[in-house]
Amino acid sequence: MSRAHVVLLTRLVTLSYCSTVTARTFTLITFDVDGTLVKGSGQASDASAHARAFAHAVGAILGNGSPTPLPAEVIPRESYHGSTDGLISLRLAKVVLGVQPDEAAPQLPAIFESMYHYCAELSDDEMTRGIELLPGVLETLRTLAARDDVICGLVTGNVEGIARKKMRAVGIMATGALARAAEEQTWAGEDDCAFLGGFGSDFCSADLSDPARNHLDRGEQIAIAVRRCLTLLPEGATLARVVHVGDAPSDILAAKYCADAARVPPGTIVGCVGVATGSYTAETLAKLCGEPRPGVWEPVVLERGLADPCFVQACGV
Question: Which residues belong to the signal peptide in this entry (predicted)?
């Protein structure tokens, strides 16, 4: 074989390799936390460190410095479960202190910081008192961590720093499943366990008059996680699918909103895995999913959540 043929063959192999690399596609899987990865145990959950952080921060920033009642004591459960830390804080301020959302909303960054610092002073054991991992979570996350076509992160109503502390405390960070944080994630605190996601501290509409904001705000958090994920992809790679995993109606409706409102890149499929491991039945979640639209909206509901042997397949990977 002549030198010219060797050079040509080398170039063809290189081009073929580059085409393979640039053709890589990824799936982003985002997880809700409470009811999806961890569960609370009754009254202990309602009085968890996270719950106490609301009372501490709202009282400190908007009140007289004394903690308010806990959210579960004064806010209807349907307005609390599946909501975001921002909306919960505003509801708490309105119900307990009479502070209206338009007055309280500018103070949300200070409230988030106060919530985080309250939790940061606690040990990991204290942080996880009243909550525990759901079955199958660690095993499934380790399986996903071993894949090179999947990027995992969180989409949660939690303040980012609190989510980081929770994930370390319950052992989820140690699975290696959660992708590194994007450069735009600048939360200061728990920096050793920063990871990709969209958080309650990233977006809050401050609209308490529209019940749909529970899921629309979460939909914006999914969109934020998608935007951040795109910055982590290798050059030339594409995001083929975004799958949100959650246990609440707001999770299902948020993912559906992202599909309906084209809140993902063109051609990206939106999937959702509703998990009946929280407060809602599989039947309730399935009704909210509506009809699938192949290539656009592909929801699945699993009774056993991440413990289901078909979970990874349900994510479309």
Answer: 1-23
Is 12 contained in some domain?
no
Mean of the pLDDT values across residues 76-100? 93
Query: Please, are residues 26 and 233 in contact by the beta-carbon 8 Å criterion?
Result: yes
| pLDDT at residue number 44 | 59
Judge contact between 257 and 215, C-beta under 8 A.
yes
pLDDT beyond 50 at 19: no
188 by Cβ neighbours in 10 Å (0-12 / 13-18 / 19+) ranks as exposed
**Amino acid making up residue 101:** P
Q: Is pTM, for the whole model, over 0.85?
A: yes
In this structure, are 70 and 37 located in the same domain? no
Taking every pair of Cα atoms in the chain, the longest distance, rounded to a whole number of angstroms, is 86
Tell me if residue 13 falls in helix, strand or coil: helix
Tell me the three state secondary structure of residue 246: strand
**Partners of 271 in the beta sheet?**
243, 298
Q: Regarding beta strands 238-246 and 25-31, do their DSSP bridges make them parallel or antiparallel, or are they unpaired?
A: parallel
DSSP reduced 3-state for 44: helix
